[in-house]
Amino acid sequence: MFPYKSSILLNRKAHRNLYLQLCDQIIKHIKSGKLPPATRLPGTRTLANDLQIHRKTVIAAYDELIAQGWIETLPSRGTYVNRMLPIVNPADFDHENSKQKTTTISSFSFSKRPNLMYSSVSFDDSPKIQIDDGSPDHRLAPIEELSKTYRNIAKKSYHQNLFAYGSTYGNLDLRKKLVKYLNQTRGLNISLDNILITRGSQMGIYLASQLLFNKRDTVVVGNTNYLTANYTFEEAGATIAHIPVDDQGIDTNAMEALCKKTKAKAIYVTSHHHHPTTVTLSAERRMHLLQLAKQYGFAIIEDDYDYDFHYSNAPILPLASNDNYGNVIYIGGFTKIIAPAMRIGYLIAPKDFIDEASNMRRIIDRQGDMVLEKTMAQLIKAGDIQRHTSKVLKIYKSRRDLFCSLLKERLSNYFEFEVPKGGLAVWVTLNNKYNWDDVVAKAGSLKLELNPEWRRYDPNNLKHNSIRMGFASLNEEEIYKTIIILEKVCAQL
Amino acid sequence: MFPYKSSILLNRKAHRNLYLQLCDQIIKHIKSGKLPPATRLPGTRTLANDLQIHRKTVIAAYDELIAQGWIETLPSRGTYVNRMLPIVNPADFDHENSKQKTTTISSFSFSKRPNLMYSSVSFDDSPKIQIDDGSPDHRLAPIEELSKTYRNIAKKSYHQNLFAYGSTYGNLDLRKKLVKYLNQTRGLNISLDNILITRGSQMGIYLASQLLFNKRDTVVVGNTNYLTANYTFEEAGATIAHIPVDDQGIDTNAMEALCKKTKAKAIYVTSHHHHPTTVTLSAERRMHLLQLAKQYGFAIIEDDYDYDFHYSNAPILPLASNDNYGNVIYIGGFTKIIAPAMRIGYLIAPKDFIDEASNMRRIIDRQGDMVLEKTMAQLIKAGDIQRHTSKVLKIYKSRRDLFCSLLKERLSNYFEFEVPKGGLAVWVTLNNKYNWDDVVAKAGSLKLELNPEWRRYDPNNLKHNSIRMGFASLNEEEIYKTIIILEKVCAQL
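The joint structure predicted for all components is written out below.
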């Protein structure tokens, strides 16, 4: 007979009802083959006695098992494990080992992505300074306005519909506000038809890639480029072609030469501040690129991730502001302005492309967060976004100035750089006598965390020996500490 | 000479600075070829006079244009449009027509998706009753707890890191709480390694599809199925194979027969309440399916979208609770319990699959909303989610009872159905004498909006003449109104 007493362990303190625990365990034993089909189960009084529980509990459990189809009552005969269940060999179930294996390694095959970039954000909590790729300072995020506005919006009864299913294009109010805001600040000339709210720039790049690229379509990027974009393009099946980048940005003459030989589906540009080198695409090259797009019929994916952070003069209007032929897909977001966790962005393109992007959204994640999007709309309306942008722009500018002046004063024997006209990072070249691995290792031991995967800035082996150093997320004290540590590091090189 | 006075229109009331407006327009004329390279620009005093603005404004504009590279100053000679700019034929720019065309139709090619489902949610605000596919009642969303908790969490200074970049796996606290919550309520035996936070069930289906399917891999679904899942699989390149569905759920004997002939990559099941027919997968077939998965090495994508809504007895534990060989990918979310706009869900699978899903997340949308995820963790901890679930379960059960009893009492000549044991919708079959198009049309004129795309419930032309009618989102008054309108409609058939 099956040893019910020792095989069923009930925990009165557990959250789950006792009768359900009993069910669970009987089912477990049925599935493992220890209680095979047609096994006669003990009467409710007997089992209750053995397990030292109330008879009512056993009755409830049996009722449940009957309802679920695990056991059956044959009138005047008793209760049996359902005879229709498949027969199972108990030896097939080595529970301990199986559980461990199966929760780690799947028994089906799926494709791995060896190229996908791993987030280099460290989650180690020990005190140290981390030099990032050019992230905003999340400590400056306007949390008070954001959470207060969020709460006020969520609470209003006439906003209840925000909690229902919403449009895959994004919250209407936010789209209206953004059309106005972007037309004003970016010199665009768009309407509601041209905008889709995304969850940040990365989603814009992903949507554009999935829509544009079929297998082996060619996408053109700079020979130094934002690597996550490259991975995103490859994920969509595109082949990447490189053109040089110099102090005026991507080389549009090289693009022209490429177009004469190959059919390019699209080119990816970070026109305002090239990622990673921070240079701005010159006015001439902008016009040239737009002409080429018109001539050869390729798309320009313009990733304007840090449009608002321009320190010396007014930002140069994006390519999208002069897109007379419908070639530009314009991508941006608020994550750099507000905080990385505030995932709201926009995709701007001709209507037909936006409609397809909206279809894609339906199957990727259904829609955005309507309450957050409405909150954003309210913050734009109240001028909070604009005020916050001005505020952080001043702070980031002074941080840039401090970081660059210290770097120049004290470390010019080791590092070379141009003061960036905008953006949140400096493109720093290490003197060729030295190696970044040494710098990273020594800095790490002094609690200054540089990017250990610095080679990712040079996927084409150009040997520029440069990395991006984000200054924006460091306050004044941290900037001084960084420079002091770098001095110590360099003294040991 | 270029007619500056009539070609430049400045708006003192506009948001954008006057000098920047002047820049914008000069750039526009340069780009359109009306101010060709090497054109001599008027002196600042002259232009200021012509445009009736302050000379300082013109100086600021010229400085800006010089900084951006549009114009240049030749010492002792004057200011000229940059001679290096490309020459443009003004006839190429027919602005009015171009703007309209380009904002509608793109000049590059991209793939369209004719099959993608359009959201059937109507945004027309006129008062009417809408019968949905089985959505929760967003009016019941626990908005007060949610927004209060959100605000409290966002405000705490030690939560500031929530605003920084977060993990692609999701907020750690939420993952910990969910592991416990799901182990308790679903009889799972998972650890942190097995869970990825998503933005709802749909994202889980999307991630699983992208990872599992290469071109022409076969995925098996019921011959009636949740259509959005089908589209998601096709988007990933999979080929769909159908097996029958009866009153015990999908026919696992048919699955076995299929596996003998074809290599199936995965099967998609809504085991708890089949979508659309609402039947529950029987205990026998569950065991059979798990055996087949082990034998043939395919994945089981278990979409448990409404696990918590089971009215007659305790929910049957999902297939994932007995996944001894690592075959099950378990997908669920909170959108049906809380509100469609609260996009938090989970993907449960063996560790290696979860790690790849996390990589994919990096390029799709970077991460979730950390503050919202932390809010969710807090609501679980405080028991709010569980209390809310119990509360809406009672309400939905009584709505089911009312809807079904009225439908049976008054409309049994027209509609046939089984009272669903759970879920938020009834699978209603229309008497074969009648046609849903008539019903939908007549109902629409009486302000009862049924799904005009009802044929989507029968993509394989089985002629079951059935649709889903969601009762959960209707309150008592709306249920009565619905039945009354249906009576009127049927009287006219």
